[in-house]
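Sanity check. The docking grid for iron/sulfur cluster depends on where the pocket ends up, so I'm generating a full predicted complex first rather than guessing from homology. Inputs follow.
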Amino acid sequence: MHPFAYTRATDTREALDAGRRGGRYIAGGTTLVDLMRETVERPESLVDISGLPLREVLVTKEGGLRIGALVRMGEVAAHPAVRAAFPVVSQALELSASAQLRNMATIGGNIMQRTRCTYFRDVTAHCNKREPGSGCAALHGVNRGHAILGTTDHCVATHPSDVAVAFAALEATVHLLGPDGRERTLPFADFLLKPGSTPHHEQALRQGELITAVEIPAHPRPLKSGYLKVRDRQSYEFALTSAAVALHIRGGVVREAKVAAGGVGTVPWKLSEVERHLIGRRPSDALWAAAAEKAADGARPLTHNRFKVALLRRTVERQLRIVGGSK
Ligand code: SF4
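Predicted complex below; grid placement will be based on this.
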């Protein structure tokens, strides 16, 4: 591990000042410390923000949820308001990591976590994300777990977070606070960046900006929701494919549909075509299958992950049936 300076911010102003000077924020540390041990990350200065007052889950006056950036994954999963209104969020968190990690890792850190691409974590391998311009060892290497959507010749790594898939489906927003004291809000879809030709730029964050909260908007119609994760083993494993689905069905018709997929995209992948196909139609097994057919539109599979095309469609179809009912 490379030497680094460590300070513990006692308030938000102190944290932002340190962030402006180039300090890296750390809270649970469950990803960053691992990467520092492997010398993939070499920050010169860490700013511990775990004492800042960002640890509340609030129901907004419109009926949405505002989740403080420092709320632990386990606390969000167990929160009664989250479980009642957005079970897809609770389920995605419960299917993530281990109980020990969920007790440490924060929501802000979760959406900032970096890819599990093995070449990214191997400092002897070529990796444009870790070392811009060095190439991508995964393109012609072992790429079974890599992405089939949103890839470029510069990077084919998946985003590893489960709860980010639920946030993408529910069209959450990310609240940010800059060192100049200015607040801004980004749609979740704009917060995480696709690789393009600069895969080392992963989030639309400005220098020193702090994530303060993730907000799930109120939905005028109550949504029935859930998360399905397909992986090689049943615990402590990342998704090969996953599906976050939220539906409102009334009068025998799908009135609202929110669908996103994980394990297949360079960012959590919103399935807008699947959603459009569902709206205004009568729920049936045939509808779920026809909508899910569109889930892999535009996919560019690699040598070892062609199976993800069919697996993605089946994962989405199955989760639509679980949430919408078999008819
Ligand atoms: Fe690096 Fe992305 Fe290629 Fe993996 S897929 S080696 S993270 S550039």
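Relevant for the grid: Residues 307-324 form the longest helix (18 residues).
Also worth noting: Residues 115, 117, 119-120, 127-129, 136-138, 155-157, 199 surround iron/sulfur cluster (CB under 6 Å).
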